[in-house]
């Protein structure tokens, strides 16, 4: 079945079974490999993308569920975005595998909450990091908040 989708502000048309997870459409059909496969059950968050600005686990999101919605992957995040800048400055990644999902979760958090509390950060940043970089992730979210505030 043919599916039309908008990813990172570009229009695409792909041939895929309706139950194909968005993750595999992004990686195998569109060659957008920044989104990672982790658990395959939507639990770890390595596959997080934004659909109409909301974080979604793409490994468990069938392509047929997209209805004129826009998808943002890590490739679509501006390298000058405060979250990306903070991630670089804090040097968050160790192995880096979960970082695209972590960054997109942080982008979502800051888009919705201009001054997140510790509870907001804990609630929004539910992605699993097998390297345990949670303290660095928290520092990067705090720095992102400062950078975004200076930008405004």
Automatic annotation (TrEMBL):
The 2Fe-2S ferredoxin-type domain, residue ranges: 1-77
Key word Metal-binding present: yes
SUPFAM superfamilies in the record: 2Fe-2S ferredoxin-like, CO dehydrogenase ISP C-domain like
InterPro entries: 2Fe-2S-bd (IPR002888), 2Fe-2S-bd_dom_sf (IPR036884), 2Fe-2S_ferredoxin-like_sf (IPR036010), 2Fe-2S_ferredoxin-type (IPR001041), 2Fe2S_fd_BS (IPR006058), Beta-grasp_dom_sf (IPR012675), Diverse_Oxidoreductases (IPR051452)
Keywords: 2Fe-2S, Iron, Iron-sulfur, Metal-binding, Oxidoreductase
UniProt KW Iron-sulfur keyword: yes
Pfam families hit by this protein: Fer2 (PF00111), Fer2_2 (PF01799)
PROSITE patterns noted in UniProt: 2FE2S_FER_1, 2FE2S_FER_2
Entry GO MF terms: 2 iron, 2 sulfur cluster binding; isoquinoline 1-oxidoreductase activity; metal ion binding
EC numbers for this chain: 1.3.99.16
Cited PANTHER family: BLR6218 PROTEIN (PTHR44379:SF2), OXIDOREDUCTASE WITH IRON-SULFUR SUBUNIT (PTHR44379)
Protein name: Isoquinoline 1-oxidoreductase subunit alpha
The organism's taxonomic lineage, starting at the top: Bacteria, Pseudomonadati, Pseudomonadota, Gammaproteobacteria, Thiotrichales
Gene from which the chain derives: iorA
